[in-house]
Specification:
single chain, alpha+beta, two-stranded antiparallel sheet, 3 helices, 2 strands, SpoVT-AbrB_sf
Amino acid sequence: MKAKPIYKIVDGKGRVLIPKELRTASGMDYGDIVRLSIHQGVVTAKKVDLIEVGDQSPEAVEAFVHAAIREMPEDTQIAIAARLLELIEQRKRQSHE
C-alpha cells in the first residue's frame, strides 16, 4: 500500500518539518544525524549513523562531538556529562576487579 503524499511549506530559513509518522517510519528520532542529498532535482533525507559520516579518526570524532555538544541544550549537556562519568566509574571498577 502506497502512502499518501504529504505537502509542507519551506519556511523563511529553509526548514521543513518532517511529520512524526514519516520520522517514525524512517527510524528518525531527536538528535539523530540526517544526511541530505540531491539527485536529479530530488532532495532526500536519510538517517545515518556516525560511522557513515566519514573520517573516523579519533581527532575527527572528538571534533564532531565537541561541535555537537555546543549546539545542545544545557539539560542535554548535563545528561551526557553524567553518562560519561558513569562510564568512567564502570571502567575504574572493572579495572580493579
